[in-house]
Recover the amino acids of this structure.
């Protein structure tokens, strides 16, 4: 179980970093500063998850679960907004962009949520296995 959660930590962290970079570098066209801020936050949280995986930091699984839970919560607004704006432009108009939102762009976020929940369950099971 420990090897699975170790790999999941790295995968979730790296996937979050890559997803955050898409917003940070405005891959989806001009967008509000809040979207770029979301990207920065995602890159930082993803980096923290990967950093915590190294053996230098002896943190409890509970603390790791909190960080992963925050990471999962951070994905929810992005998922909702991609579905909400499906088929419409997402540019704020300055400058204009022809980019049209599509629900498919929510898939990386949904994958992070799915893998994050798996990681939380794995960490929780590892914690309870210690006490049995």
């Amino acid at each position: 179980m420990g090897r699975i959660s170790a790999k999941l930590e790295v995968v979730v962290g790296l996937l979050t970093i890559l997803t955050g970079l898409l917003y940070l570098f405005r891959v989806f066209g001009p967008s509000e500063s809040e979207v770029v801020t979301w990207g920065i936050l995602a890159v930082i949280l993803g980096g923290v998850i990967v950093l915590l995986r190294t053996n230098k930091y002896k943190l409890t699984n509970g603390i790791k679960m909190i960080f992963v839970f925050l990471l999962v919560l951070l994905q929810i607004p992005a998922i909702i907004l991609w579905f909400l704006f499906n088929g419409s432009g997402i540019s704020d108009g300055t400058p204009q962009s022809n980019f049209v939102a599509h629900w498919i762009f929510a898939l990386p976020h949904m994958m992070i949520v799915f893998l994050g929940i798996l990681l939380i369950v794995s960490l929780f099971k590892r914690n309870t296995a210690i006490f049995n």
Remarks:
- The radius of gyration is 17 Å.
